[in-house]
Structure formats: structure tokens, C-alpha cells
Amino acid sequence: MQRRLVLIGSAAFAVQPAFAHHGWSSFDQSKPIYVAGQAAKVAWRNPHVEIELDVAADLKLPADLAQRPLPAQSAPVDGPQLLKAAAVPKRKDKRWEIEFAPLTRMQAWGVPEIKVGDRLEVLGFSFPNEQGEAILRAEFLWLGGKTYALRSSPA
Fold first, then answer.
1. C-alpha–C-alpha distance, residues 40 and 33, integer Å
2. Statement: the pTM of the whole predicted model exceeds 0.90
3. Quick count: other Cβ atoms within 10 Å of Cβ 65?
4. Cα(148)–Cα(138) distance, rounded to whole angstroms?
5. For the chain, how far is it from start to end, CA to CA, in angstroms?
6. pLDDT interval class at 27 (50, 70, 90)
7. How many helices (H) and strands (E) does the chain have?
């Protein structure tokens, strides 16, 4: 009887839902999306920082976005091209979940801890055709007058 309970318990554990970490391959890196707003919820932790961002319904691209200077990073990212190709989301979700880099990388860039209420701008990638949840994987962050490149470590 005890063996049967162990087997049933093991089977029940095996079918629990898995919460997968989103790698870069899940996101459409050919279509950079720009969002800006106020942090509504912040999880400053590993495996990566997550923020729920309240985005205005009338969000527009900043006129200077394509000309913004970008910091050098160790990953081969064509930042100027991403800025030129950026668009606001087609979907009109008021709240977006932003997935940032791991906490150690955020610290390497010197990103200050983001707090609820902070205003920030993010350029990143969503799922193909913006289907599924309103999630954006952050490539660049503008916060407090500074720009942070989050794909890799600073160069």
C-alpha cells in the first residue's frame, strides 16, 4: 500500500504545470517594440527582474528615439537599427509585463533598483505577431536619464 501511495504521489508531482523561463527564441527579434510608462509592480530578483508597466493608451514613439545614443555591450546587437525599426505595440494592453536581464547583469550595468511608481522606457521584443500575453523581453532601458543595454555585459 505504501508503495502505491509513493507511485501515485510521484505521478501527481510529475504532471504539475511547468513554469518555463522564456529564452530569447520565444520572442520575435525582428520587430522591436517600444513601451513607456509607470512601474506598477516590481520583482527585483533572479532569475530575472520583472516589472509590470502601466502604459498609456495614447503611447507614441519619441521623436528622438532613432537618434538616441546607446552604450556598448559585449553582445553583437545592432542597436541603431533596432531603434529605427521600433514601433509601439499594436495591441492596446494597459499593462505589460517586462522581463529584464538577470539581476547580476542589471547590477553590472549599474541599473538602480526600480521602484513602484518609477517612470521608464523600454525597447524589447514580444511574441510573434504580439500573440499571447502582453510580455516584452527588454533589450534597452531608459531610466533616470540613462540608457542601459541589457542583452549582455557592458563592453
1. 19
2. no
3. 17
4. 10
5. 61
6. confident
7. 3, 6
The owner of cell 528622438 is: 64
Residues 75 and 21: beta-carbon distance below 8 Å: no
pLDDT beyond 70 at 24 = no
DSSP one-letter string for 80-108: HHHHHH-B--SS--SEEEEE---HHHHHH
C-alpha cell at 47: 532569475
Distance CA 36, CA 98 (A): 11
Q: Which CATH superfamily is domain 25-149 in?
A: Nucleic acid-binding proteins (2.40.50.140)
Indicate the domain borders of the chain: 25-149
Euclidean distance between CA atoms 150 and 79, whole angstroms: 11
Cis ω for the linkage preceding 47 (within 30 of 0) = yes
The dihedral over CA atoms of 25, 65, 38, 41, expressed in degrees to the nearest 10, equals 20
Q: How many CB atoms are located within 10 Å of the residue 97 CB?
A: 16
Radius of gyration (C-alpha) of the chain in whole angstroms: 18
CA distance 56 to 50: 19
How would you classify the pairing of strands 95-99 and 135-143?
A: parallel
